[in-house]
Design goal:
about 350 residues; mainly alpha; 3-stranded antiparallel beta sheet; globular
Length: about 350
């Protein structure tokens, strides 16, 4: 007798009209979800996680009205089950869902086809003076309406006719060399605070990735990182400065950085702790993410190409890299460009001289 196939809690097998085995998630108080991937695959694991977290299989509110077909409630319910929403990382989905749900409370019952550009502009204006939040809402509505077109619930995207607000801020402050030196003076080699800085500065990775780095990620003198936010995989040489910092800290756990309780930091916990370390160094303007920008700046000042910088940071477009390297030292870059220009001119003059001698 064949052993019964193990299935996670709330998952059952059934046969479709063609006799093929299918799998569904059925939990009391939640909507049903039909899996697209086979049990045991990574796709199935992600779908199941989305079901248990109430994303793919939404909680059914007792006494709630039936979702009206063609409404934004209907559209959002479909969107949460689509690759558009499920493919990004867990962290990204939490952010997207938060933006959508806050907006959905007020506009969920409205008809998708009734949305006009003026409505979107008014919704954004309601969020002022928080321009960044208004622009984030616009991005999510734009993606939602693109999905609506593919679902046949709309024939145009009215969000495209609107404009985002201009944001004057350049984002997180990029650490200068003086600020890095000031932090290093306050937190010497061998301290946990110093190792945290070096893990980010000498890899160009986000704080969320640095907090989970450990000896198991190092192989053949390379640090292999799967980025939490994007899923991008980067393999980086362990540079001498980072190797020295790791050896000085003498880590003895599966992760290099442990909290006071002997456990890995949570994402929020690490951010708060690094904020404390920066404040102790009298650097209130500096942050963990600013170190990622500082690493990119250093690469740009060294004359690295965008492709080379992307190989370290994991960015996928040149525009993303440009935002990070905007703080590259202009004077140093100008000097380097001048040296290259003069070297090229000398080469041309030398070639012209060789040609004259040959003619003579």
């Amino acid at each position: 007798m064949m052993p019964k196939r193990w299935l996670p809690k709330w998952v059952s097998e059934y046969r479709d009209r063609h006799g093929k085995a299918r799998y569904r998630f059925r939990r009391k108080g939640f909507s049903q979800y039909l899996f697209k991937s086979e049990p045991g695959t990574e796709g199935f694991r992600q779908e199941y996680k989305a079901c248990t977290s109430g994303i793919a299989a939404e909680r059914i509110e007792p006494g709630a009205e039936r979702i009206a077909p063609g409404s934004f409630d209907d559209l959002v319910s479909r969107y949460y089950r689509s690759p558009d929403f499920l493919d990004p990382s867990d962290r990204t989905r939490v952010v997207y869902r938060g933006v959508i749900e806050r907006w959905r409370v007020k506009y969920g019952k409205a008809n998708v086809r009734d949305l006009e550009p003026r409505h979107v502009a008014d919704m954004m204006a309601e969020m002022l003076p928080h321009r960044t939040a208004a622009n984030m809402l616009r991005k999510r509505l734009r993606a939602l309406m693109q999905f609506a077109i593919r679902q046949g619930m709309a024939d145009r995207n009215p969000v495209m006719a609107t404009k985002p607000y201009r944001i004057d801020s350049t984002g997180f402050h990029t650490w200068t060399e003086d600020e890095i030196a000031q932090y290093e003076q306050r937190h010497p080699m061998g301290s946990k605070a110093r190792l945290a800085l070096d893990l980010m500065l000498w890899t160009g990775q986000r704080g969320g990735d640095a907090r989970v780095m450990g000896p198991q990620h190092v192989k053949n003198r390379r640090l292999n990182v799967t980025q939490e936010k994007t899923g991008a995989i980067v393999s980086l040489p362990v540079l001498p400065a980072l190797a020295e910092s790791i050896m000085a800290a003498k880590p003895s756990a599966l992760v290099f950085l442990l909290s006071e309780h002997g456990k890995p930091y949570s994402r929020k916990g690490f951010g708060n702790k690094f904020r404390q370390w920066c404040d102790e160094a009298a650097l209130p303007q500096c942050s963990a993410h600013g170190l990622r920008k500082a690493a990119a700046r250093r690469f740009a000042e060294a004359g690295c190409s965008n492709q080379q910088i992307k190989a370290w940071t994991g960015h996928t477009t040149d525009s993303e890299v440009s935002r990070y390297t905007a703080a590259a030292d202009q004077q140093a870059m100008a000097d380097a460009a001048g040296e290259k220009l003069m070297a090229n001119l000398h080469k041309r003059l030398a070639n012209d001289g060789d040609k004259s001698l040959k003619k003579g």
